[in-house]
Amino acid sequence: MKIALLGYGKMGQAIEKEAEARGHEIMARIDRHNLEERGALASSGAEVVIEFTHPDSFMENARIVMDQGIPMISGTTGWHAQREALAELVRSKQGCLVYSSNFSIGVNLLFKLNQALARLMDPHPQYDCFIEEQHHRHKADAPSGTAVSLGKQVLDGLGRKETLATEELRSRPPRPEELSIGYVRSGEIIGYHKVSYTSDIDTLTIEHRAHNRRGFALGAVVAAEKLPGKQGLIAFSELL
After folding, report:
1. Is-contact 122 159, C-beta < 8 A?
2. From CA 159, how far away is CA 177, in angstroms rounded?
3. Is 161:119 a contact under the CB 8 Å cutoff?
4. What phi, psi does 34 have (nearest 5°)?
5. Cis peptide before 55 (omega within 30 of 0)
6. Distance (Å, rounded) from C-alpha 214 to C-alpha 212?
């Protein structure tokens, strides 16, 4: 498969290594120094674009790629307030865009465990739920997209929680219906996510800790390999 990388920082370079190890060819490497080349992705021969950039540039990147008729894999987070506009863009171009807050296979298994655990804990109101995450100091959004995804899954399965709470809790305690999400930004932490249920008697926890970026990179390449014949706005978990 012929792949263009849109975003060539640590993640882009990790994706390049995984893609080449699996026999794929990198046709373009684009970062802030050569953004003008985004308009020539089709002429590079790229069959798919893998994009890990910044939420502020995500929609522009998506428009440029969709205009060229190339399917796109995106691991950028922090753009979901624009989801409807993105869905309309993909529909209007009859394109394909696969997204995820986290392309790690392990994290996507955590998502499944999280959904099941929330349903199991719903009949047990003595347990309160909270989420914690940790990332490196360079990360642009907080809480992480993965933590928000985990939180929304808990809200779907745990009737006593109705909303997510983060910044509000700087000045007051959480309300019973709020799901608290805490975060840390420090050093070069790759990624850590934890969902806990705690009572007066005990605590039950599921968690995922990334040891390096290979898991995220491999998942993005696997997503690209599954793209042929697909159309629309698709969550990576659906592809899996």
Report:
1. yes
2. 9
3. no
4. -140, 45
5. no
6. 6
Tokens of 46: 């790229």
Return phi, psi of residue 128, to 5°: -100, 145
For residue 13, give both structure tokens. 């370079």
What is the arithmetic mean of pLDDT over 3-19?
95
Beta-sheet pairing, 203-209 with 192-198: antiparallel
Rounded Cα–Cα distance for residues 72 and 11 (Å) = 16
Residues linked to residue 183 through DSSP beta bridges, in sequence order:
133
The pLDDT tens digits for 166-223 are: 988 989 999 999 999 999 999 999 999 999 999 999 999 999 999 988 999 999 999 9
Contact (Cβ atoms closer than 8 angstroms) between residue 177 and residue 161: yes
**Which of 111, 181, 112, 117 is CA-nearest to residue 148?**
181
Looking up tokens 């987070």 gives 77
d(CA 125, CA 198): 10
Cβ contacts of residue 182 below 8 Å, gap of 6+? 130, 131, 132, 133, 143, 166
Kindly list the catalytic residues.
135, 139
Which DSSP string corresponds to 160-179?
A: T--EEESGGGGSSPPPTTEE
Whose CA is closest to 196, among 116, 114, 105, 112? 114
Q: Work out the widest C-alpha separation in the chain, in whole angstroms.
A: 62
CB neighbour burial string for 152-166, b if at least 16 within 10 angstroms, e if fewer: ebbbebbeebeebbb
